[in-house]
Input
Amino acid sequence: MSSPIVSITAPANPVEDFLRTDRMPHIWCPGCGIGTTVNCFTRALLESNTDLNKLSIVSGIGCTGRVAGYTNLDSFHTTHGRAIPFATGLKLASPDMTVVVYSGDGDLFAIGGNHLIHAARRNIDLKVICVNNLTYAMTGGQTGPATPLDVITATAPYGTYDPAFNLPYLVEAAGAVFVARWTTFHVKQLARSMAEMFKKKGFCFIEVVSPCPTLYQRRNKMGDGLDTMKFYKEMSKTKHGAPTNEVGLTKSGEIIVGKFVDRERPDFATMMNAHLQHELGDQYIQAEGPVCG
Amino acid sequence: MRLTELRIAGFGGQGVIMCASVIGRAASIVENGYATMTQNFGPEARGGACSAQLVLSPTPVLYPYVVQPDLMVLMSQEAYVKFAGDIKPGGTLIVERDLVRVQELNVPDVKVFAIPATRIAEDLGRKMVQNIVMTGFFGAISGLLERESLCKAVEDSVPPAFAELNRKAFNAGYEYGMKHLETGALELGEEDPVSVSE
Amino acid sequence: MHADPVGVLTGAHFLDGDHAACEGAIAAGARFSAGYPITPSTEVVERFSHRAPKIGATFIQMEDELAASIAILGAVWGGVKAFTVTSGPGFSLMMEHIGYAAMTETPCVFIDVQRGGPSTGLPTLPAQADMMQVKWGSHGDYEIIALCPNSPQECFDLTIKAFNFSEQYRVPVFVMMDEVVGHMTEKVVIPRAEEIEVEPRRWTTQDKSSFQLFAPCGEEQTPEMAKAGDGYQVHVTGLTHDERGYPNMTPAVQDRMVRRLVSKIRDNAEKICLTEQHDIEGADVVVVSYGITSRVAQRAVETARAEGLKVGSLRLITAWPFPEHIIRAIAPKVKGIVVAELNLGQMVREVERCAGGQCRIAHVGHAGGTVHKPEQILKAIQEVAR
Ligand SMILES: Cc1ncc(C[n+]2csc(CCOP(=O)(O)OP(=O)(O)O)c2C)c(N)n1
Ligand code: SF4
Output
């Protein structure tokens, strides 16, 4: 197996402050893309000057789900698929908090798919980072809702034949106000995109196409982490504003990256407060955040 | 107050539950007795029919349901057909005169009292208070609760702006009832008040 | 601490159990609820959605019960008191988050208005058949607290109690209503705010560098809390974790953690177990019941006593933890115990276990859909007394 593309334990790493160093080493395999995304995330926090006491991170279950546990933030590792509804409760109870949801494609789009589309519909002010490794990695590389056609997985030994979701298209249709996609090759762009997203109000979504050399690439004879980086470099094309219905992923075809959607729509809390204020006038008491004891 | 089982029934929009709830309030909150109200939910509560059951008692109500009502207030023909036959022998039926055609029952000694509650309410300017007219009538006919208790429960159950109207409705029903107590109950199938026994 | 007067509707009301439970939650300080409509519990959140904007609270209707049951946990870690409400199939969907709440020691309240099952069953009619599910429904070893009101007044009182226990022990607490209690309307007296005891969340004041989110404190073995934004950088996970909250997959940590989750409730069971007992001293037969069935059973008990039988009654206000000590004390002194419940044999198993063969146990089961006829319970009393 290849060595990690980016080591998040390197002593000189400027992002160390953001990590729970007492929990290192992490569980991720060499060549895994998840660590790279965390690196970008911490750089984005640094660059955007976010108040770390006012930022929480919520994960579901999966290899990506472990991210919450390594960040030195208020961090919640919830149940499989339910990061978004947990984050919804957290955000509504604590309106000043920036709430980041960090999870995998299976967690967010299969078992949690219903929550995702409803949170996007309501435009809950959540920043969703989806590490799309095109498989259920934590459980051993089974087919997921984002696995492209003709891919070998642990549960599709003869190749997949059920079509995958095009994540940006789905999320845009459901109502997200910010939708972008990068790969783990695009570290600068990804970090910048994340920083931009922290400042945007409403349901925001970044898909990070990321290698799982251990279970996806190897099974499909696509090489190791480094080969995947080469593949990303060759096959990706930046097209900001690309119509999301044209950005679906295939096994070895083009990967369209960029910021696809950036639009304005009042978020859930704004709508709620404005509406109740209008209907109830002076009788309306807006929830102020933490109120117990 | 004595242990009494009541059923109030009619169609949706007549204020059946409100009528039951006013009686329950009067018994439990104003008079400090005990009252337990249950409603029918689900498929049988769809399609317009609406019914509430009440148990009034001087001691805590243990069994929550009405088994055989001592008294029923029936505000529609459908309710009459469905429930009237369940009345306890010797019990009292109170009906909306213009909406219910009283028919023979297989139960002995049932007394029937009728009031054109909807018409009286319309005369007061609001058809919607017919349930409160009914409540007043019930108060007079049953004698179960003090007039003032029921009237207070009515006032406590409506927004202040409607208190006056509802008080009037209650009094109209109550007085109609007092008059009819003097003349006696209706005979089943008849228009005029005479006592009924079978 | 006393209740916040903003939420308290002091006075005598004529309310059904669902509405009363909502008022109890508000009086207890709940300022967040997430729900998904299901009969016969929906009235609780309908009322909350009406009340919330006027008391600085938030209601959100989620996309399903999985979402509702974890949104409340997110809200709790955001710093508020929160609850959800459901019935039947919705309760089945919530099981995973009962385990998550127990594991992460998230104080919260679930209200289950029990209806007939299995599956869609009897949406509008009563049962008491979730009594084992509430205790054992999520996987793994854990303890919860479950309370069983038998009147709208108790729906108010015990919902407050549920919130208080949840804060005291950092545990999910369940108000196990039934359709009859939820839908029956009776007088409910809401005291003045200063007469309502409310347990505040036990926010930590410990040093940021050394505070441990899962280190037991005091007799209750319950850790103090910090919320997101307090600067403690808490980590909360459903994985087995050490006192800092960090995942640790060793049998030793698993043993320590699970034992504490269980013992904080078991060791304090006598304090948590609320019961109502009548005439148990000298009784030949004791009738055990809870929820609406306790009222019907009381009627049977009164009839039996009028017939000259020596009958006592034990009402379980707290069903979980099960009041083992009380059954153990009664069993050797009576001919038998009659257990009446709207299911085909749930809490009776606990009674049998604790009675340990020392007296007869007669179960008066009922598949639900209505309440027992008092005569059914009376017959069992007469048989056991013979
Ligand atoms: C209710 C439930 N079902 C199944 C699982 C097992 N499980 C754990 S992670 C996972 C898939 C994760 O896939 P993904 O979200 O794509 O994350 P990745 O591991 O690929 O980062 C599954 C099915 C679980 N934890 N809970
Ligand atoms: S299994 Fe795949 S996704 Fe999981 S850590 Fe290893 S490489 Fe990463």
Q: What stands out?
A: The longest strand of chain B covers residues 49-57. The first helix of chain B runs from residue 16 to 30. Residues A 28-29, 32, 34, 63, 133, 137, 212-215 surround iron/sulfur cluster (ligand 2) (CB under 6 Å). Chains B and A do not touch (no CB pair under 8 Å).
